[in-house]
């Protein structure tokens, strides 16, 4: 449990803000349910990918278990992840440590 009177140092606060405001990845994870053609269709509809780009990401999900389909600001990343989840894909957010 956290002590109510505990103070966070300014540097801790700055790092937290940076993580919230920094670059985030939308990652689609493999699942045993969705057909490959359906995943391609969703990528085209949600991100506006062309057929080749959508298939590339679908194959990454299928063969490697995950694909980073988008990266950018947290609010937009959350919106994309939510939309993908509405399409019944397994999507998560992770911080992009390269930025």
Please sum up the structure shown:
The chain is of the alpha+beta class and 99 residues long. It is 52% helix and 21% strand. It has one domain: Ribosomal Protein L30, Chain: A.
If you had to describe this structure to a student in words, what would you say it looks like?
This protein has 99 residues and is α+β, with helices and mostly antiparallel strands. 19% of the residues are buried. The protein has helices spanning 10-21, 36-47, 51-64, 74-86, and strands at residues 23-29, 66-73, 90-95. The chain has a single domain (23-95), classed as Ribosomal Protein L30, Chain: A, CATH 3.30.1390. Helices cover 52% and strands 21% of the residues. It is built from 4 helices and 3 strands. The protein is globular, with a radius of gyration of 17 Å. Strands 2-1-3 form a 3-stranded antiparallel sheet. Helix 2 crosses helix 3 (51-64). Mean pLDDT is 86; it is low at 1-14.
Describe the secondary structure blueprint for this structure:
Blueprint: H1 10-21, E1 23-29, H2 36-47, H3 51-64, E2 66-73, H4 74-86, E3 90-95
Antiparallel strand pairs: 1-2, 1-3
Helix pairs in contact: 2-3
| CATH fold description | Ribosomal Protein L30, Chain: A
Instruction: Report how far apart the termini are.
Output: 32 Å
Q: Would you count the extended β strands for me?
A: 3
User: Considering the protein shown, what is the CATH homologous superfamily?
Assistant: Ribosomal protein L7/L12, C-terminal domain/Adaptor protein ClpS
Overall 3D form: globular
User: What's the SSE pattern?
Assistant: HEHHEHE
With strands numbered from the N-terminus, the spatial order across the biggest sheet is 2-1-3
Highest-level CATH class: Alpha Beta
**Which radius of gyration do the C-alpha atoms yield?**
17 Å
Total tally of structural domains: 1
CATH architecture label? 2-Layer Sandwich
Proportion of residues in β-strands: 15-25%
Helix content: 40-55%
Segments where pLDDT lies below 50 for 5+ residues? 1-14
Task: Provide a count of the helices.
Answer: 4
- In round numbers, the mean pLDDT is 86
Instruction: Specify the biggest β-sheet.
Output: 3 strands, antiparallel
């Amino acid at each position: 449990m956290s002590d109510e009177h505990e103070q966070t140092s300014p540097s801790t606060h700055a790092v937290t803000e940076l993580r919230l405001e920094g670059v985030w990845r939308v990652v689609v994870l493999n699942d045993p349910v969705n057909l490959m053609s359906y995943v391609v269709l969703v990528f085209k509809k949600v991100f506006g990918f062309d057929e080749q780009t959508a298939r590339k990401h679908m194959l990454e999900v299928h063969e490697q278990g995950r694909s980073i389909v988008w990266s950018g600001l947290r609010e937009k990343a959350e919106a994309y992840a939510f939309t993908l989840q509405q399409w019944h894909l397994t999507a998560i957010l992770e911080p992009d440590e390269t930025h």
